[in-house]
Amino acid sequence: MSGAHMSKNVLVTGAAGFIGSHLVEALLARGDRVVGLDNRELELARAHAGYRWVQGDIRKASDVEQALREDTFDTVVHLAARAGVRPSLIDPAGYCDTNVRGTALLLDAAGRARVGHFVFASSSSVYGARDGAPFRESDAVDDPASPYAATKRAGELLARAFHHLNGTPMTCLRFFTVYGPRQRPDMAIHRFTRLIDEGRPVEIYGDGGSQRDYTYVHDVVDGLLRTVDRPSGYRVYNLGTSQAVPLHRLVELIGASLGRTPHVVKSPAQPGDVPLTCADLSLARSELGYEPVTGIEDGIAKFAAWYREETAWLASSR
Ligand code: NAD
Ligand code: UGA
């Protein structure tokens, strides 16, 4: 076993978001000091002595600089973004503003502040609409299927450029459809759970055969912590589960976990969506020691349990 953890100073952008909130909890639990830059507050960390919130927008240079002045940071984990795939077709310029211009502002300021390591939240969407799974980090990623995917690839390239310019260690993590407690309500697992629980129809896009490598948030956080602890040149890693789950199977699993029969309605496949994602994990295994432990059956059962608790709590506090 490794020795005592050396406490780190970490700036997390998007700290109040789904993945950010889990990462902040895990960093605080191991004794790190965390500054969260987000335009909304992370309530669960409000009272924690190791956490400070800078209310700000990554699109504003003065907010970014203020956050970086809060401490001398060992690591910046950059999660703040417009994160939905399909809505990026409606507001492509807005996505570029946050995900590309905001990332450039942060990378530039982080270099000047001499942060020790910059970790960028990239996405499986950079692999585009393709078959031939699993996807490896060395595969071509020059054919994005949505403006969102293009902004994530742009973020990786900006990180590469700033690594070249100032030598800051940079790690890009390609997350594969993450789920778990506090998942964004617009994402499929959360949305389907709510609709099935309420006895309402579930709208699935396409014929139900599209597949995703769904990844439990605790596995992603484990990969993030391992990354935070290993600054090393410019690196790109997949963080997935390497299990491609068809959409119809996902709906069945959610129904079974709730003890309800889903009422499925089919809609056309959505522009911007890819038919398949599936991560090759060899590189993350060998260089980070990453090993996901939650398969889809367990993960959906855990998600349903969280959902039940959450709805019971909301009902009792009304
Ligand atoms: P989320 O929307 O729950 O969290 C994003 C957070 O960023 C929010 O708290 C939001 O307030 C904040 N934010 C957005 N724009 C901001 C701005 N201009 N200034 C300051 N704060 C801003 O999203 P998430 O699902 O937790 O995703 C986190 C990151 O991981 C994103 O970069 C996303 O693209 C990436 N990612 C997510 C998934 C997934 O399945 N959830 C998969 C691949 C990549
Ligand atoms: C998710 C995240 O939202 C992105 O932030 C992330 O970058 C991406 O994963 C990734 O892995 O890179 P997505 O895979 O579209 O994007 O996640 P969901 O919204 O949960 O959709 C999962 C599947 O369900 C997709 O096939 C989608 O078409 C389908 N879906 C979604 C439906 O059939 N119906 C819905 O109402 C919603």
What descriptors fit this protein?
318 residues, alpha/beta, 7-stranded parallel β-sheet, two-stranded parallel sheet, binds nicotinamide-adenine-dinucleotide, binds uridine-5'-diphosphate-glucuronic acid
Low-confidence stretches: none
User: How would you sum up the major sheet?
Assistant: 7 strands, parallel
Strand order of the largest sheet: 3-2-1-4-5-6-11
Number of helices: 9
What is the terminal separation in angstroms? Answer: 47 Å
In terms of DSSP E residues, the strand content is 15-25%
What Rg is obtained from the alpha carbons, in whole angstroms? Answer: 19 Å
Number of strands: 13
What is the residue-averaged pLDDT?
Answer: 97
- The helix/strand class is alpha/beta
Oligomer type: single chain
Bound molecules: nicotinamide-adenine-dinucleotide, uridine-5'-diphosphate-glucuronic acid
Helix percentage range: 25-40%
**N-to-C order of helices and strands:** EHEEHEHEHEEHEEEHEEHEHH
Shape: globular
How would you describe what is shown here?
By secondary structure, the protein is α/β, with parallel strands linked by helices. Helix content is 39%, strand content 17%. Strands 3-2-1-4-5-6-11 form a seven-stranded parallel beta sheet, sandwiched between helices. Strands 7-10 form a two-stranded parallel ribbon. A two-stranded parallel sheet has the order 8-13. Helix 1 crosses helix 6 (217-228). The termini are far apart. The mean pLDDT is 97.
What's the helix and strand layout?
Elements: E1 9-13, H1 18-29, E2 33-38, E3 51-55, H2 61-69, E4 75-78, H3 92-112, E5 118-123, H4 147-166, E6 170-175, E7 178-179, H5 188-197, E8 202-205, E9 211-212, E10 215-216, H6 217-228, E11 234-239, E12 245-246, H7 247-258, E13 264-267, H8 282-288, H9 296-316
Parallel strand pairs: 1-2, 1-4, 2-3, 4-5, 5-6, 6-11, 7-10, 8-13
Antiparallel strand pairs: 9-12
Helix pairs in contact: 1-6, 2-3, 3-4, 5-7, 5-9, 7-9
The protein binds nicotinamide-adenine-dinucleotide and uridine-5'-diphosphate-glucuronic acid.
Uridine-5'-diphosphate-glucuronic acid binds at residues 83-85, 123-125, 175-177, 187-188, 191, 203-205, 210, 212, 247, 270, 273, 277.
